[in-house]
């Protein structure tokens, strides 16, 4: 009996601490590659009609997303998914809501080819950029070679590797500064653990390391037969309504929320989570505390954004 109690205690202490880790303070990146990647990230020539860049949908002056319910691609075409943040995305175990890209390199090519996003192709992009002498010089300097698909994607990924938002108050707290959180924020973290949010939102990104079903306890009526998530990749019935658990880092800046962009406030979103994932009807005090905790996950802007 005592042994079981001890094991439970051990598990819960593991859950409360080691399951969440701070992000790197200064991620190791090749600065030259990352700065070239930064130029590419902001370059509208990656789209068919030179109107859209990665930054159009991933605004780095805000939360790394576009603050729209659904993203706007070329010719004002509207997608069916809410854009996730690109900040700290290197920590995700796979990319996209349905996890169809295994890493950032596999991811980066997709919006370029997506007809409702950038509507172009890699050969087209290589051709356009090759007409720019400044780029030719830069690629030669950084890659000792010409402008190729491989080099373009590599540079973009290196830039994304630098898009880490360090020293959020919660990270300072994790590193031992007990004054980094207020009493209310600490209570919010305690609730986050005791309600079991942490069983899905954990790891460095408080998310991004597993697929989970939405509607575990209570199915979500408005999701019925809409975007099916992981099922689109595996075609397995049991994967319907499974999505990559999103990161909660910088979440106060990334409204609207969920893949469906259904809610504009954190309180509504947390209430949705509690209802559908945990079967709990929260009161306002509980929501305020969890919201206060979530706001401590806002980190500093990545250093690479101040460099050129
Ligand atoms: C038209 C808007 C749009 C453009 C342009 C765009 N994205 Fe995205 N991005 C999205 C949307 C929407 C998703 C989610 C799509 C999905 O999950 O299927 C996404 C997902 C991502 C993800 C995955 C994040 C995660 O947590 O899963 C990364 C990384 C990313 N984009 C980087 C880029 C890069 C790099 C570019 C430029 C080459 C780019 N995006 C261009 C809208 C856009
Ligand atoms: C069973 C796993 C699970 C549990 C438990 C869970 N979540 Fe989630 N959470 C998810 C998934 C999956 C999504 C994406 C849902 C979607 O797109 O419809 C999500 C989305 C969110 C979002 C929106 C993030 C964004 O950028 O769109 C917030 C905020 C959130 N959860 C907070 C919480 C809180 C707070 C709790 C505890 C009260 C909690 N979650 C419990 C799996 C879970």
TrEMBL record:
- Organism of derivation: Candidatus Marinarcus aquaticus
Binding locations of heme c 2: 197, 200-201, 273
Q: How is it modified after translation?
A: Binds 2 heme groups per subunit.
> Which co-factors does it depend on?
heme
* DNA-binding keyword on record: no
Task: Tell me any Pfam family this protein matches.
Answer: CCP_MauG
Query: Where is the Cytochrome c domain positioned along the sequence?
Result: 32-163, 183-298
Q: Name one GO cellular component term.
A: periplasmic space
InterPro entries linked:
Cyt_c-like_dom (IPR009056), Cyt_c-like_dom_sf (IPR036909), Cytochrome_c_Peroxidase/MauG (IPR051395), Di-haem_cyt_c_peroxidsae (IPR004852), MauG/Cytc_peroxidase (IPR026259)
Q: Where in the cell is it found?
A: Periplasm
Q: What is this protein's record name?
A: Cytochrome B6
State a single Gene Ontology molecular function.
Answer: metal ion binding
UniProt keyword list? Heme, Iron, Metal-binding, Oxidoreductase, Periplasm, Signal
Q: What is its main location?
A: periplasm
Gene3D superfamilies reported for this sequence = Cytochrome c-like domain
């Amino acid at each position: 009996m005592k042994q079981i109690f001890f094991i439970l205690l051990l598990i819960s202490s593991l859950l409360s601490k080691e399951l969440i880790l701070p992000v790197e303070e200064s991620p190791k990146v090749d600065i030259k590659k990352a700065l070239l990647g930064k130029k590419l990230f902001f370059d509208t020539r990656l789209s068919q009609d030179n109107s859209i860049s990665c930054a159009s949908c991933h605004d780095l002056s805000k939360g790394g997303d576009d603050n729209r319910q659904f993203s706007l691609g070329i010719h004002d075409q509207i997608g069916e998914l809410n854009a996730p943040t690109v900040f700290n995305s290197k920590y995700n175990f796979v990319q996209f809501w349905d996890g169809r890209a295994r890493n950032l390199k596999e991811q980066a090519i997709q919006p370029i080819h997506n007809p409702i996003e950038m509507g172009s192709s890699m050969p087209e992009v290589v051709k356009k950029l090759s007409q720019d002498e400044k780029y030719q010089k830069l690629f030669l300097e950084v890659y000792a070679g010409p402008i190729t698909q491989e080099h373009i994607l590599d540079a973009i990924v290196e830039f994304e590797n630098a898009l880490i938002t360090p020293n959020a108050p919660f990270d300072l707290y994790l590193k031992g500064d007990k004054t980094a959180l207020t009493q209310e924020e600490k209570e919010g973290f305690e609730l986050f653990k005791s309600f079991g949010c942490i069983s899905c939102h954990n790891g460095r990104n408080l998310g991004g390391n597993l697929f989970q079903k939405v509607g575990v306890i209570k199915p979500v009526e408005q999701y019925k037969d809409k975007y099916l998530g992981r099922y689109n990749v595996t075609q397995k019935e049991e994967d319907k309504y499974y999505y990559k658990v999103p990161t909660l880092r910088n979440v106060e800046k990334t409204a609207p929320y969920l893949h469906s962009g259904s809610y504009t406030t954190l309180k509504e979103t947390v209430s949705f989570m509690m209802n559908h994932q945990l079967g709990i009807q929260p009161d306002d005090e509980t929501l305020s505390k969890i919201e206060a905790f979530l706001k401590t996950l806002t980190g500093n802007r990545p250093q690479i954004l101040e460099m050129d």
